[in-house]
Structure formats: C-alpha cells, structure tokens
Design a protein that fits this description.
Elements: E1 7-12, H1 16-27, E2 32-35, E3 49-50, H2 52-60, H3 64-68, E4 73-75, E5 77-82, E6 85-91, E7 102-104, H4 107-119, E8 124-127, E9 130-138, E10 141-149, E11 155-165, H5 172-176, E12 181-183, E13 188-196, E14 205-210, E15 213-219, E16 223-231, H6 235-240, H7 243-253, E17 271-273, E18 278-280, E19 284-285, E20 288-290, H8 305-326, H9 331-364, H10 376-383, H11 389-396
The structure holds flavin-adenine dinucleotide.
Flavin-adenine dinucleotide is lined by residues 12-18, 35-38, 47-49, 131-132, 166-168, 172, 190, 273, 275, 292-294, 298, 300, 303-307, 309.
Length: 415
C-alpha cells in the first residue's frame, strides 16, 4: 500500500523529540506525519523530568497552563544522600525566567498533552501502532519510510520530502541509513521497578549512594518509581541471587523502605534498562536527519535527555520550516541543525561521562568509600553554597537553550 498525498515531513517515533517536532512543524504550516510503533504512551519507562527550559517552551507554545494542571511533583533543589547525610548539590531557586523548579510528571501525560495540541493543527497527523521497518531510497536520497501497521499487520510506504528519525537510542533508522556512532560506553545499567509510597515519605526525587550501591526514587504520588543502579552487564549475576537478596540490597541501602520491599513479589517485576551513551558522527544524510537519542543516546545522569531531545526538535523546526515550506531541504540545511545542536550535546555528554567515571563506576565497584568522606566537588558545593546555582543551571536550563520560533507561539489556552 502506498499512502496517497504528499507529506512534507515524516517523523519516526512519538517520544519527546518526535512529538515536539511534529507540533512545531504543523504550526509552521508543514504537513507532518508522526509514526509511533506503540498503541499509547503508557509505558512504565519513559523518564519523568520536565525541566525549566521545557516549561518555558510550553509557555511560549501557549501550553503552560494546561501543563500546570497535570498532577505533578516539583523539585527546586537537587540533593544527594551519602550514607546518612543528605547534601544539597543544586539550587534551582535562583534560575532566570519564570520556572525555578523541575516538574516530575509521568511522561505519558506530557506526550498526551503534546499529541492533543498537535491534533488541533490541520497539518498534523499522529499514527499510533505504526512501526517503521525501513527507508525508501530514490536516486541515493532517502525519500520516505516503509512501515507495518501493528494492529492490522499490513505494510505500507509513506513518501516525504524529509524524514526525521526520533526513534530513540535503539534507532533502527540510523543503522539503515549507514550512519555511524561514536560509543562512549556506560558503567551502569538500571533496574526499574515500583515500590509503594506512604503519605509521610519524602517527596520529589531522592538519590541515595553508598559503597557498592546506588538508587534513585522518583515520587509518583501513590508509588515510587525506583531506579537501582547495577554494574554494566551484571544483570544475570544479580538476578541469580534471587528476590530476597534483592530486597535485602534495597533495605541495606534505604532502611526506611524495609516495611514495603515485600511488594516486589518476583524479579519479573524488575525491568532491566540498558544504559548507553553515544553520538552519531554525522546526524544526517540526504533526505534524513536524526535528532534526540537517535542522534545521541543519553544516560539517565542529571535527567537531561528528554529536555535535550526537546531542544533538538525546536532547533530543527526553526531551521527547517522554511526549506520544508519551499519543498526542498538541502543537505546543507540538515548540516545546520547538527552544527547548532552539537555543542550542547557534547557538553552534556561530557558531564555525564565525568559522573560515570569519577562517581558511579568507582562507587559501584567500591573504590569510593562514601563513609571515608565527602567527594571533593560535593564538599566544595557545601562550603560555597552559591556554587550550587551552577549545577542547577546546567541541569535545569543547559547550554544553548532553544526558544519557540514566532510561527509556533500562541497565547496561553485556558482549558
Ligand atoms: C534508565 C534511564 C532513565 C532515564 N531517565 C531520564 C529522566 O528522568 N529524565 C530525562 O530527561 N531523561 C532520562 N533519560 C534519557 C531519556 O530517556 C532520553 O534521552 C529521551 O527519552 C530521548 O527522547 P527521544 O524522543 O529522542 O527518544 P525516546 O524517548 O526513546 O522516544 C523514541 C520513540 O520512538 C518510538 N520508536 C522506536 N522505534 C520505532 C520505529 N521503528 N517506528 C516507530 N516508532 C518507533 C518509541 O516507541 C518511542 O516512543 C533516561 C534514560 C535511561 C536509559
């Protein structure tokens, strides 16, 4: 089956990058189709942080009030727990702009909001349950995609002037296009599971490090979405120890969880998330651009990946709206997107690599004995609290924040 009618841009993947790009291009008057392989956004792992840079963007898009109505927790300080001490490492309360906090929102709510805003634009189409299986090439150029409808099992082709891969860190598109990655490696994988949360428990995000162990609890109201860090590749070995040994690890790390670890009935409830850190050398080929994790897979460190993917999408819409409206996107136009977004990506990945090497891999292998003292950078932040504004800015706003182009801006809509 070949779809009727031209699409200016086909976007592969309805994650943060794909949904923001689809919405902005539709507002630019470009006909855009977003293809998402799942039937909904309700997957347990989606990352939960919406940072001040993205909150500002939502205001500019006229979606700020709608977003504020989504149930959420707010975090205005970043803290790390070393042994029994909770130490502040970032203070967002002095950030410039209207938002001095990170919103913790289940990502499906954020994506649903973007999808609803997209559907209000005439040129926007979102097809769920549609998995891209390959690229169409014509005269050496990518001319669209092949897909499979996962509900009906039928296959089809969709042609477009530009294809944008937003299909995340397991992108099949970039491999199909022959684009090569630079791998930085990651010392950790993540075990991801839920634990009940009680009313008197701490709120917001809580990180806990101790010799050989680390975990992060994300407050989702009724429950904690919990990330337990394991050494890269040690999943089978830790799993073989069994569920009781795992419960003991959790209570050893965070003793106040002892009254509810039995809620983990089996290790089948514990999902392995494979952490990767890499970057494409070239983010594009004629007719195809990769952005978000498809161009640069991010580690969970700092929770910056969603916001970086959103910023990529904003820059892409701003730089490519005019060429798309003219009906001809040249390789030089695609190269401009990479030039614009390379530096913030490389800086944030550089910081993630530093934390991987200096903190996480040493802590998990027991080389840092947290009881022996506070690591130097954290001690410095305690001695001069004003310095806590720097990590807050890097995480909350980041290098080279992008703003909505004029064509995408709307006054706030009251819903
Ligand atoms: C363990 C872990 C925890 C993290 N926690 C956070 C966090 O709290 N905050 C944060 O900012 N970042 C976090 N990150 C990083 C963050 O998840 C990513 O950087 C971010 O999701 C990238 O957004 P994206 O839109 O580029 O890709 P994704 O969010 O991966 O979205 C890709 C989309 O494409 C779809 N797709 C894939 N293949 C196809 C196909 N063939 N056809 C059609 N659709 C397809 C997928 O279903 C998905 O919806 C975390 C990462 C890890 C590994």
């Amino acid at each position: 089956m070949t779809d009727q009618g031209p699409t200016g841009c086909v976007v592969i993947g309805g994650g943060p990058a794909g949904m923001v790009l689809g919405l902005l291009l539709a507002r630019a008057g470009v006909r855009v189709t977003v293809l998402e392989k799942h039937g909904d956004f309700l997957r347990d792992f989606r990352g939960d942080t919406v940072h001040p840079s993205t909150l500002t963007l939502l205001d500019e898009l006229g979606l700020g009030e709608e977003f504020a109505k989504v149930p959420q927790r707010r975090v205005d300080r970043l803290r790390v727990q070393l042994e029994d001490r909770i130490l502040p490492v970032g203070d967002l309360r002095h950030l410039p702009g209207d938002h001095q906090h990170i919103a913790l929102v289940p990502q499906w709510d954020f994506l649903d909001l973007l999808a609803a805003a997209g559907r209000r634009e005439p040129g926007f189409e979102l097809r769920m349950n549609t998995e891209v299986t390959g690229l169409i090439r014509e005269n050496g150029k990518v001319a669209g995609v092949r897909y499979r409808d996962r509900e009906t099992g039928t296959s089809g082709e969709l042609r477009a002037g530009l294809t944008v891969a937003c299909d995340g860190r397991n992108s099949i598109t970039r491999a199909a296009a022959g684009l090569r990655t630079r791998e930085f490696g990651a010392p950790i994988d993540v075990w991801w599971f839920r634990l009940p949360r009680h009313a008197q428990d701490p709120s917001g995000g809580i990180g806990r490090f101790t010799t050989g162990h680390a975990a992060v609890l994300i407050d989702r109201g009724e429950y904690f979405q919990t990330a337990y860090l394991i050494r890269k590749g040690s999943d089978a070995q830790v799993r073989a120890e069994g569920v009781q040994a795992f419960r003991d690890r959790i209570t050893g790390l965070i003793p106040w969880l002892a009254d509810r670890v039995d809620a983990i009935e089996s290790l089948d409830e514990v999902k392995l998330l494979d952490v990767r850190l890499n970057r494409l050398r070239r983010w594009h080929t004629d007719g195809l651009l990769c952005i978000g994790d498809a161009a640069h897979a991010m580690s969970p460190v700092g929770g910056v990946g969603i916001n970086l993917a959103v910023q990529d999408a904003v820059a892409t819409a701003r730089l490519l709206a005019t060429p798309l409206r003219r009906g001809r996107v040249r390789p030089a136009d695609l190269a401009r997107v990479q030039r614009r977004r390379w530096l913030p990506t490389a800086l944030l990945q550089g910081l993630q690599r530093f934390v991987h090497k200096r903190l996480l891999s040493r802590a998990l292998s027991g080389q840092i004995r947290t009881g022996a003292g506070v690591p130097k950078p954290i001690a410095l932040l305690q001695r001069f609290p004003v310095l806590q504004r720097i990590p807050a800015y890097v995480v909350g706003i980041g290098p080279r924040p992008e703003h909505a182009p004029a064509f995408a801006r709307r006054p706030t809509t009251r819903v």
